[in-house]
Amino acid sequence: MKDRIKLLYLGPDYPHVLDSSEKVEISAVALLSELYEMPTRNVAEKNFREAYRAISSGNIDAAKRHFAKYKQLGFLANELVKSFETYLETLIDRKIKILDTNSPDIASRVNHLGIKLFLVNGWSMLPESFLSLPELGTINVHPSKLPKYRGSLPLLWVLKNEDTINAVSYILLNAAMDGGNIIRQVDYPVDKDDDPVSLEKKTMKVINDSLMSTVDQYVEGKLEPVVQDHTKASKTARYNKYKKIDFVEETARDIFHKVVNYAYYEPDAPSYFKLDNQKIKVTGCLGQVDADIEPGVIQMNFPNIYIGTKRGTLKFSLLKNFGLRDTAKMLSLLLAKDPFSFQKEITITS
Asked: Distance between CA 40 and CA 52 in Å, rounded?
């Protein structure tokens, strides 16, 4: 059988579907700083981090030791670490190299390994000098029907605009954000009850079903790149900037999806709002309710609070949807005028 083309994968997971490809093989993956630099005092998470650092340096034996200790204590780890368990185990078992794409010697390492193609999924912007390294270019996986929703939050924008059809777009990366030529698009339906998590799962299924055939056909020269219609391009908000909730300007539906999205992807750094110049982190929401409350007004009926938005009202649990400190902050403000009342109202002013 002809030698398979070696590929560098940049993404927060491992595309197992490519293991069956007769055309390409994953030779290395890009370093994930969130794993390598993960701050933690949790003994399970520490062993996970040390296993990742060991495989990054090529020390397979140390990686196996730390991973074995992690497996014994894995029930103590947070959900984010658990979600990377199969990923790390795969790297260790297959002795897959990890490359720091920001290293000054990245070009020589790519050449030394004979890598001819990059595959990117869920990664930050990459410099043109890096994109020019592989002979066959860089394929990017983007979960929107490009040129719509370029940027880091395409699925939230699909929900925000109540689209009924979305697509996974495979493009050839260039210096323009998500503006490269399209080599394939795979459509799939969006249901009215979808939220960011269900839509993410749908998207991942489409990727799993189409990734290998797309990459294989591309390296065989069977896919003709098509230039995007840049006049129809639209962008999402910036990832971190969009975390802030504005109850006056945003609808209940959009805020609910925002809360679900960030709590799912970043449980330790979720969406938030400002109350009396203090940051209140929101880790969940009980959903939209039928109540007529002015935008930006908080009403408490302990143990729940209700917040009015631009359109609709959201219900939150003080005990489940906020951290202890933030719950204490809100209670102190809500009960300031009458400490014996458990039905109070305040207005968000910042």
From this structure: 14
